[in-house]
Amino acid sequence: MTPLKEQPGLVWPTATVRDSYLAGERADCEAEGRSTEWLGPAGDDFEAFVAQRRGVRERWGVPSTVFWYVSGEHYLGTLVVRHSLTPELAEVGGHVGYHVVTPWRRQGHATRMLAAGLAECRRLGLDRVLLTCDADNEPSRRVIRANGGVPDGRAQGEDRFWITLGAAGAAGAA
């Protein structure tokens, strides 16, 4: 894996990371035993694939913004901010979802990516955000706690965490 020359950051999806995106997501699918079929259409017309993910779009029944975490031509992961919650998202899913692709895991990227995502939530005027993760996903729990996550029980097999944003919250200092 090539060392990163630029500080990673959140950006709207961009075609400049095409090869890295496809390779990273393919590695994730293969590592997790998921189908890679969806990557075919993405690779065939990556510009259209990117266009479908840019901007504020209705997803999961709420306005949502997709960000990619990139460094130069390297795609490291995806972060989604849901601007509000449906009753279902208030149980499982929450305001923020994220993942770092397999080649870039265990290097602190998820913690930094979530911190940047919380800054985006703050810009949207959110005071508190809900994050959930699978009960057996200890790495994600560590990332959420490192960003100020306070446990709030479990629902439908997922652990729930609230993060308070603003000057007083840990996320405010990130």
Strand content: 25-35%
Overall pLDDT metric: 92
Overall SS class: alpha+beta
Shape: globular
What kind of assembly state do the chains in view correspond to? Answer: single chain
For the termini, the CA-CA separation is: 27 Å
Count of DSSP helices? Answer: 7
User: Largest beta sheet, briefly?
Assistant: 5 strands, antiparallel
Task: Please bin the fraction of helical residues.
Answer: 25-40%
Protein name: GNAT family N-acetyltransferase
Pfam families: Acetyltransf_3
GO molecular function: acyltransferase activity, transferring groups other than amino-acyl groups
InterPro entries: Acyl_CoA_acyltransferase (IPR016181), GNAT_dom (IPR000182)
Produce the secondary structure layout:
Blueprint: E1 9-11, H1 18-32, H2 39-44, H3 46-51, E2 56-59, E3 62-71, E4 74-82, H4 87-91, E5 96-100, H5 109-123, E6 128-134, H6 138-146, E7 150-155, E8 158-164, H7 170-173
Antiparallel strand pairs: 1-3, 2-3, 3-4, 4-5, 6-8, 7-8
GO molecular function, one term: acyltransferase activity, transferring groups other than amino-acyl groups
Domain N-acetyltransferase: 15-166
Protein name: GNAT family N-acetyltransferase
Architecture overview:
This protein is an alpha+beta fold and 174 residues long. It has 7 helices and 8 strands. The C terminus is likely disordered.
Compact overview of the structure:
With 174 residues, this protein is α+β, with helices and mostly antiparallel strands. It is built from seven helices and eight strands; from the N terminus they run E-H-H-H-E-E-E-H-E-H-E-H-E-E-H.
List keywords for this structure.
single chain, 174 residues, five-stranded antiparallel sheet, 7 helices, 8 strands, globular, Acyl_CoA_acyltransferase, GNAT family N-acetyltransferase, acyltransferase activity, transferring groups other than amino-acyl groups
